Amino acid sequence: MDFLKKYIRELVLGTLVLSNIFVWLAVYEKRPSDILTVYFLDVGQGDAILIDSPRHGRALIDGGKNRKVLTELGGILPFADKKIDVIIATHPDADHIGGLPEVVSRYDVGLFLEPGVESDNTIDDELKKRVEEKNISSLLARRGMVINFGDGVRLQILFPNQDVSNWETNRASIVARLVYGDSSFLLTGDSPIAIENVLLSLDSENIDADVLKAGHHGSHTSTSLAYVEAVSPEYAIISAGKDNTYGHPHKEVLDILSKLGAKTVSTIDLGTIKFETDGKMLEIK
Q: Can you tell me which residues the record assigns to a coiled coil (predicted)?
């Protein structure tokens, strides 16, 4: 019995020590820094992007097609930290919002942003239901809106610039530009070439970015030569699933990116892709 009591006591003490380690790790990981981190999450054939600002303001743009986004978030965010300040659903296609209902249910979300277009699937109805059940503020994204993280990071909404309620869903995609110091990311949803042309006509000089998330998973319906020339990215991100039935990314897109000197990286090859920047230097991890 003395032997058993001794080891039960050691087990309890060990559990307490481990609990304290987890708590201090969480506190350590939440400390402010001067680094903006952007994750292009590996969610298979879909999109999900996590933004973590220097003071840990967070935005999740899209959530892939299923619960895999939960695994990705769980592997990145500190233990027991369930805060996401903003969720943006670029458009209501299943491969972009399929995982979002569960994210909304499991995380403390401050704001939900969407373009205001309807879908034939039922996932967007479920998503909006859960947003309402948790009393999360909801807004329609419109050009000119800016999400200011309060630490130098700003997310600028470039599109839609009008009501898109009766549009085809890809055309209604939210396009946003993330800026921190001299570093910038252009995040495009499934926006097709027709909308790229709209953005070029609205303000071609202010879509320049170091990192371009290629539209529609690298489909030839997006990422035109003129658009890439205007963006002039150092990196182009392809978010797609291995051996997907659509053949993404398409060769035409890869050729355009290569011709203009962009380094193309894909979740197919690398899994989750992580960028860090202090507003001056940009690194891929």
A: none
